[in-house]
Amino acid sequence: MRDATLAAQAITQPANDVPFYLPAGSECELFSQAHRHRLPLLLKGPTGCGKTRFVAHMAARLGLPLYTVSCHDDLTAADLTGRYLLKGGETVWVDGPLTRAVREGGICYLDEVVEARKDVTVVMHPLTDDRRILPLDRTGELIEAPANFMLVVSYNPGYQNVLKSLKPSTRQRFLALDFGYPKPELEAQVVASETGVDHDTAAMLVGLAGRIRSLKGVDLEEAVSTRLLVYCATLLKAGRPLNECVRAAIIEPLSDEADVKDGLAEAVAAILG
Hints:
Layout: E1 9-11, H1 27-36, E2 41-44, H2 51-62, E3 66-70, H3 77-81, E4 82-87, E5 90-95, H4 97-104, E6 106-111, H5 118-124, E7 133-136, E8 141-144, E9 149-155, H6 168-171, E10 175-178, H7 184-195, H8 199-213, H9 226-237, H10 242-254, H11 258-272
Parallel strand pairs: 2-9, 2-10, 3-6, 6-9
Antiparallel strand pairs: 1-3, 4-5, 7-8
């Protein structure tokens, strides 16, 4: 059986190594207050809009280790809390990423939490009220979270359905921030800062994304993310032709359907002239 710690990536970032993030409002201040007052936080928003970067940015600003778990439908509570493993002929307990964060302090970030199995919710609940405890039934421990522990979860409401959603009783245990794609002028700044392209090029890509996003819900399951714009600008900065960049970084990632991709290519050609 695999080591539970493989389910997560633990990142400790020096306070002076802060990932770039351009605030769209007061989200940085709200995150800081949530941490200060020991409140859990829920981030809602579409794919690639900056939720994960925001958490990494805030963890670095606060000087806290960050344990990021990308949730999926095979993720169990044991992947988060830990399990007994056979090592060197002995059976030893190995903490999972959530348990490590609770023991040592830091931010545990469960990305796309609704993708995980339902028993993950059961584990979260005692950490999201005034108890702030993590019961480990297999070891008999009851771990109290230190003051600098914070639980942050995220999900994409666009994928929400009857089978994969957070119950109201769970959502109401969290403060919540609603993320969207940045306003065009801010998004252009992000693309330019991340890739080094000039502002006009970044603004052109953002304008293109805005036009394609208006098609969401018609032929596309998801819109063009800020992440994809950064990929496209990175290729452009490397000297690749615009049409090639747009095809590789925007059209192809958005759909596997030939007719949809052809329609997108026609739309892009019309927009770009």
